[in-house]
Amino acid sequence: MEELIGTAGLLGIALILFFESGFPFAFWLPGDSLLLSVGLFAASGRFEIVSLLVTLFCASVAGVAAGYWTGRLVGARWLDPDQGSVVRRKRLMAAQSFYIKHGGKALVLGRFVPAVRSFIPFFAGIARMPQRRLMFYNVLGGAMWATGLPLVGYYGGAALHRRGIDIDAYVLPVVGSIVAIFIIVPVVQSLRDPETRARLLRRPR
To answer: Is the pTM of this model over 0.85?
Structure first.
């Protein structure tokens, strides 16, 4: 993560958030861990916190808006079995069900759900959610997620710095724990599915 942030810089981080916020093909990008990490790095002086938060917020909101319009314009083709899909149909339908069930709240709450947040704006576009309503929840969710998580990292890192604790020594364990959780939780959920367990236990012929 440190190498990624150092190589990509602020512009690269903004592009990662832009795509991960609104495009299904980018669901695998490390949004949450990236936001917490840049907050920690800002606490050590590697980023100016105000410009960082403004950039992250704008990139996140713009990504949701772009994903929404992509869904409105071409999203129906992704659900057409005759035309195929670049994303597994099961994942698409699960994300659509999540959006339909939770409505506009999904744009806020879904920001904090890895992978799911990349699909929600797309399906909001397919469902032709009113633009004003979308932007209201988009701005609200972006403020909570794209600025909230970096601030958690920033003030947490600042607190460590005041106590004379080396922030860099904690970046890897914190980020590693976050990534591990994001990997372990989906694996556990998949293993709870009887069909998944049966496929894994099935011996190859």
So the answer is: no
